[in-house]
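Internal ticket - ligand job 393, pyridoxal-5'-phosphate:
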Amino acid sequence: MTPPLSYFDNAATTKPMYVPPHLTADLWGNPGSPDQLGTHSKEQLRLAKLQIAQQFGLPGAENVIEVCSATEASNLVLASNWDLIVSTGLEHEATLRTLQKGKKNVLILPNYSNGLINIPESLPLIEKALTRDNMKILLSVIYANNEIGTVQTPGDLAQLKRAMLIRSNVVRVHLDIVQAVGHIPVSLAERGNLFFVDYASISAHKWHGPPGVGLLLSKDHSMLQPLMFGGAQQGGLRPGAEHCALVAQAAFVLQTILPQLVTLVPRMQNYSRRIMTVLQPFVDNGLVIITGHTQQRNVNHVSFCVAYGDSTQIIEQFNSCAICVSSGSACSGTKATPSHVLLACSVPARFLRGAVRITSSMQTSDYEVTRVCRVLRLILTQHQNEIKPSALS
Ligand SMILES: Cc1ncc(COP(=O)(O)O)c(C=O)c1O
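stdout (structure tokens):
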């Protein structure tokens, strides 16, 4: 008998949480219409946005711009009128491709192989890139990496901002916090851990909310320019009728899970530790490298590369045991080229095609972790037996 599916691809998407239908049943009115239903939807949308804003330490509903994905949220920030965008080689495609396509002046900061930004090397590069005073500068960084799990140090990012403020008073910081929400406390409040952040992209489908709801958290929209043109919704920054019911669902889920982080985080950390324990002997004999930072990483995230491994084959082996894992980024699909993040982390060539990512969630059970550990050990042992020991030395 086939076992029930064990889902370990929660960095790609998460199973939506049950939201009592009565909470959103009457939110189908157009919030732009002055009729009774529209007015009700408008007010509920405002309340939902306010709840979301407050979860991130922001004061008002107007600090939340509803879009359809985190990709769109990041595009909205990046496409505005910056003289210089400072970013990293570790970004999600939503940022990376936008930077590649745009004709903007971009500085890519160096990083260590563990995925942390190399601050000592970055500071002189920033100084050099600021060729005149008061350039409009955006620092855009992925906070918790989707492929390798590394979580940047807030103090380091604040230091980068301070270095830019020396020559400009128009410096803004955008963080992609898509993978952090539901795992790492995030506050953009004055005394919060990310107090220096001006914009943050989030996506409800990454934290058991509904798909199709991206949100841009923004302290001040004055530097932002719309990507689309149409009605006056959301101050004209993002025209088009809002999805009141979906935003209300997203707010409900966020309010349900964030207060539970205190208990959820140790549980997910324990799961990750158990999976890492299975990997350790294979790390010791050179078959596997852990990608990303060994300590400063997202709590639910285990990522590694197998020497001379083939991600597609490994994922298929897990699939055949009814376990879903992935190779790194869901957005890279089945592309044959090695991941830009692994390249930026100088992962040796023999490991580049063997990337595996195992990500748990608050819905993951102890039994499922036991299963994934057993199957992982079997797959790696089999692979080890297939390659010559001399290839690993
Ligand atoms: C770190 C990160 N940023 C951005 C995105 C894009 O999110 P969305 O699917 O909402 O566009 C993802 C999704 O994989 C992600 O992991």
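Auto-summary: The radius of gyration is 22 Å. The chain is about 35% helix and 15% strand.
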